[in-house]
């Protein structure tokens, strides 16, 4: 399973859960599952298939400052890895795509550079503009996927192996976007399916033939 979080705060709200509740959830998960980095999770799925119910990886959308200030210190203390997905054009800004909602501050480039050196952190792409990929032209899709990867790698000096579709519903992606992800050497891409287990992510293996 892939657990998806957004913002972790001192009070609950839209896309925000209480830090104390987050800690309790992670402590429970740790007692029941092996928590892997996303890259380790991919390798395990390739080796053992999709039927394993003993492994989990933890992801955070949008690169909110709470990931830096609250999440990393706690997870590092617990020796737990996680992945944060960055909407590149919004680095250092706010969640302007959540029209009418509370503004939540995103990490800056300097803050992202700092966490990129943390062995318990993986950084992935959340596209450039946080747009619904399936609503874009093929050229715009290519630019969202390629430019976000290139800019993150150039600024953070890390390999970007994972992509996360903004909004993440199955109708927010399309075959062309999956094709581009494979061509650009991403290892995986994530989406979400809203239902009574909407904290879990669906998983798409892009490079099926990798070791």
The CATH topology: TIM Barrel
**What is the arithmetic mean of pLDDT?**
90
Cα-atom Rg, whole angstroms? 16 Å
List unreliable stretches of 5+ residues: 196-203
Strand content: 15-25%
Specify the number of helices: 6
Describe the 3D structure.
There is one protein chain. The chain is an alpha/beta fold and 211 residues long. The protein has a single domain, classed as Glycoside hydrolase/deacetylase (TIM Barrel, Alpha-Beta Barrel). 35% of the residues lie in helices and 20% in strands. It is built from 6 helices and 10 strands. The strands form 3 sheets. Strands 1, 4, 5, 6 and 7 form a 5-stranded parallel β-sheet that branches. Strands 8-9-10 form a 3-stranded mixed β-sheet, sandwiched between helices. Strands 2-3 form a two-stranded parallel ribbon. Helix 5 runs parallel beside helix 6. The longest helix has 19 residues. The radius of gyration is 16 Å and the shape is globular. The relative contact order is 0.15.
Task: Pick out its properties.
alpha/beta, 5-stranded parallel β-sheet, TIM Barrel, 6 helices, 211 residues, single chain, 3-stranded mixed β-sheet
